[in-house]
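Dear colleagues,

For the upcoming journal club I promised to circulate an example of a predicted protein-ligand complex. I picked one with zinc ion because it came up in last month's discussion. The inputs are reproduced below in full, followed by the predicted structure.
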Amino acid sequence: MSTGPTPTHHRSRTATFAAAAVLAVAAPLAAAGPAVADPNFPSTEGETNTASIASYDDLVAELQRLEDTARFGVDVQTLAEVGTAVSTSESGRDLYVATVGEGPEAVWLQGRIHGNEPYGTESLLAVLKELGTNGSPDWTLLRDTYTFHVIPMYNPDGSELNIRHTILQDGSNSRIDLNRDWGVGKFAAAESEAFYEYWTMVDPAFAVDIHHQGLKREYGTGDDVTLSLGISLAPGGPTLPGVEGGAYDVLTRQMHVHVYDELAKYGYVNMDRYQVGGSLEIDIKGGVVSAMMLGLDHDGLNPEGHSNPAIFFETSGNTSDGSLGQKARGKSIKQNVVALQELLTGMATGEVQQEDPARWDEIPHAPVTGYQTDTGVIPVP
Ligand SMILES: [Zn+2]
């Protein structure tokens, strides 16, 4: 999703206090935290310098370094080494996954399925470093509870080209959105076949996918949004309440309510709910995280119908729009890392599962007018 650039916006003192008040109402703990800083961190000016963004070679080098130096056993593999039938990108690049942790449940963390949305890679490499090196109680709990399967760069071809898609190498040069390619009659791209088969090997308990969107303003306040919280099958929408007896409709909301409460304590983060077209909830079936929740059985590889809840994050700023903002780089990555740490720890302790799912409604969003599905818009009845 890209909302396009908006003019540079200098927040007034009034707006800052209004934002603080909103956060305080939604999350009383925020009132005792640090003052709310200006969340307008993605730059709206100038060109994005992609030289500072992790390249495929950077990814491979950093994964190797983490495997060599981690205290707690980071295992880096290509899908060729794992043994999936299709194991490289369309252009023949190796596809990488890193695993860490010894817990009984698997967790799937992926980033940069859209090649022009870069910081999923940096964010997941940062999380992987903590998982591999941090001996504090939180990270120890995570390693003891889960085995993490981390895919920092799902789409290396698109990443190298700084485009959303991958490009088919069958002579057609067709551009494929990999996040619309896990569906019946789809799987046009090699990356989809490869990572889908790996998913059927892992059978994760839950998954998180990291994206970027263009610059966005919060509905009602006009404040700049730094992070949107997304569920690709809309809670309470046409699809999710009918999946697994409604269990994922509840748990995905609890996951984001927890992230919202925890990150509201950080002054530089301003969150809302991910929406498209201003007021539509997304309800697409071909997204990777959607297909996971639907338990898609492609090529007979998932005959038992494994499914898992899955959510996504959207950091503001986009390389294609030139709105990424170099000054924002550290904060953009940091908010993803903190969001993941809070989510994962909350899942491991059971705090997430105790959240009130109805509080999804408290996360800022425009009044919902309909659902954006694969085949068009369904108005809210
Ligand atoms: Zn995306």
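Two points we might discuss: The longest strand covers residues 206-213. Residues 114, 117, 211 surround zinc ion (CB under 6 Å).

See you all on Thursday,
B. R.
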